[in-house]
Design brief:
42 residues; two-stranded antiparallel ribbon; globular; mainly alpha
């Protein structure tokens, strides 16, 4: 995950979501809270 030109998070989709940081926030803004529960592919 890059934020303002800096690498801020690295890892597979599941780990990035579990950290509940920048990647997870952006993912949830785009797909909503229920996307992961519904089994949406990464």
């Amino acid at each position: 995950m890059i934020d303002e030109g800096r690498i801020v998070e690295v890892g597979p989709h599941e780990e990035l979501l579990a950290r509940n940081a920048t990647y997870a926030a952006l993912y949830r803004m785009q797909f909503g809270e229920s996307a992961e529960a519904a089994g949406r592919p990464a």
